[in-house]
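hiii so um. not sure if this is the right channel but i have a protein structure encoded as tokens and i wanna go backwards to a sequence. like what aa goes where. can anyone help
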């Protein structure tokens, strides 16, 4: 598990100070704290051990890792800002023996939204392009490879339908393909994959209704959309 310093206010204070200065001495950083020198030293050493801060002679400054982390800070609240999750959403299409459009759907076998049906997808990793992320997720979760094209940026917010509480905030980078190869993995840890028509998908008792929106938007050529959806929090 990676260590992040947001759990302790002294460490956050150090990062905030160094965010606004190329480098600072120990006394300059400590003067805004009401703890002992030993206590403050402990937290500065922890930041150095974890690679967020480095010491050059008698001065301290942020490392590259520290700059990236501190740059996400809400400097008014002295806290790291919570941001939307960024994921790829994959629409893979084929024609069945009847000439009907079928899409590759996936049933979640993990929380949140256990047993819900939707499209294949997953979180983007640091440094990946959209297409690279889609290719990796498709291969990992289905065993297939596809020739993708980027279609849509989709901002989705999920709320509890009774309280209005925000449950999830996600940005989906949606890709589309009809050319693919490989043998489908039908079950894996965390999900079940299945080809279905839209009508068959609509028969599922637990499904992400945003999937219908994805397809309509992709077919229409729209490149950006924001939507709100409401769920029973007990299903989340």
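sure thing!! here u go:
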């Amino acid at each position: 598990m990676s260590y992040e310093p947001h759990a302790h206010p002294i460490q956050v204070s150090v990062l905030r100070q160094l965010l606004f200065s190329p480098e600072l001495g120990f006394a300059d950083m400590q003067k805004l704290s009401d703890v002992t020198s030993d206590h403050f030293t402990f937290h500065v050493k922890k930041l150095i051990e974890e690679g967020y801060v480095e010491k050059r002679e008698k001065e301290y400054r942020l490392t590259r890792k520290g700059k990236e982390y501190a740059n996400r800070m809400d400097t008014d609240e002295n806290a790291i800002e919570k941001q939307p999750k960024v994921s790829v959403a994959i629409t893979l299409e084929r024609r069945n023996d009847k000439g009907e459009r079928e899409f590759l759907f996936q049933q979640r076998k993990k929380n949140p939204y256990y047993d819900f049906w939707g499209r294949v997808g997953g979180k983007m990793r640091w440094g990946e392009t959209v297409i690279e992320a889609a290719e990796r997720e498709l291969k990992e979760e289905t065993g297939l490879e596809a020739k993708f094209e980027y279609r849509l940026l989709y901002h989705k917010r999920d709320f509890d339908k009774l309280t209005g509480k925000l449950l999830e905030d996600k940005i989906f980078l949606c890709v589309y393909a009809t050319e693919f190869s490989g043998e489908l993995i039908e079950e894996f840890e965390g999900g079940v994959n299945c080809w279905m028509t839209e009508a068959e998908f609509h028969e599922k008792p637990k499904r992400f209704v945003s999937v219908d929106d994805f397809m309509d938007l992709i077919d229409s050529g729209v490149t950006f959309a924001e939507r709100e959806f409401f769920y029973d929090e007990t299903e989340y």
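oh and The domain at 85-235 is CATH 3.90.79.10 (Nucleoside Triphosphate Pyrophosphohydrolase).
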